Amino acid sequence: MGSAAVALFQNVLSHVPDSDAGAGSCVLQAFLKVGAVLGIALISQIFFLSLGSETDQDAYHKAAKNSLLMPITVYVILAIFQFFKLSERGPLQHKK
C-alpha cells in the first residue's frame, strides 16, 4: 500500500484544479482511510472464518494464508488494470 499511495496521489491530484487541491487531497485521504478500515475488516473476517473453532497451529497457518491471498490477489488485479489503462493513453502528463 505504501508504494502505491504516492502514485495514486499524484495520479488523482493531477486532475484536480489548483484551487481545489486541498479539498481533493482531503477527499482522497478520507477514501483511503475508509478503504483501509474495510480492508482490515474483510481480511479479519476471512481469517476468523477460515480458522473456525480450531485452535491448533496448523489451523492458524491455514487461516493466515487464506486471509493474505485476498489482498495479494486484489493488488495484482489492480496492477494489471492500471498497466492496460496506462498503455491505452500513454504516460501521465502533469499540469504545468
Could you give a short account of the major beta sheet? none
Radius of gyration: 18 Å
Terminal-residue CA separation: 28 Å
Shape: elongated
Instruction: Give the topology string: H per helix, E per strand.
Output: HHH
Question: How would you name the oligomeric state of the polypeptide chains in this document?
Answer: single chain
Per DSSP, the total helix count is 3
Please tell me about this protein's structure.
Helices cover 79% and strands 0% of the residues. It contains three helices and no strands. It has helices spanning 2-13, 21-51, 57-89. Helix 2 (21-51) packs antiparallel against helix 3 (57-89). The longest helix is centred in the last third of the chain and has 33 residues, at 57-89. It starts with a helix and ends in a 7-residue tail after the last helix.
Per-chain topology:
Layout lengths: L1 H12 L7 H31 L5 H33 L7
Which structural traits does this protein have?
96 residues; 79% helix; single chain
